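Reply to dn_fold:

You asked what the input looked like. This is it:
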Amino acid sequence: MSRLHKTGKQNRSTYIYHDCHKKRSAELRPGENGVSEEDIAMLHELDDYEVNINRREERRTPHRLSIGVDGNHEVIASKWLRDESSNPEAVFDDKERKAEHEEKIRRLMQAKGALPPKQQWLYENVFEKKRSYVDIAREEGVSETAIRNRLKKMLGKLEKLLT
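and this is what came back:
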C-alpha cells in the first residue's frame, strides 16, 4: 500500500500497520513484544521516506495519464495528450475563439486610440511595457497614488468606449 500522508508528530509514540484495504491491522507500542522507541522512530522515518518519494513522483508527472473507454472510443483525460487536430469540431472552436480574441484586441486598440495622448502613454507604460507605478510616478514627478488615480480614470474611459 502506498502512503500518501506522513503521521503527525503528536501521533508518533506508536506505530499502526494498515492492511491493503487501509484498515488498521496492528499497533506497535514501545516496551511490548521487544519493540523499542527507536524501532517505532525508524518505521516512521521509512514511511516519511516513502511519502516523499511518492510526492516527488507526482511532481515529475506533469499530467494525469488516465485513459478511459467511452463507447468504442478511447478517451484521454489529459488535454496535453489528446490529438485534437483530427477533431473538426475542436479545430473549428479553436479558430472561432481565436477570431473572437483578435476582434477584442482590435476593439481595444481602437478604444486606446480614442484616449487622450497622456492616457495612451500611461496605457503603453503600464500594460505594454509592464513598468511599475513607482517607476512611472518617479518619471512623471508625481506620487504613486496619482498614477493609480490616472490609471483608474483611464480604465473607466476605456470601459465606456468598449461598451
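Helices lie at 37-60, 88-113, 117-128, 133-140, 144-162.
Hope that clears it up.
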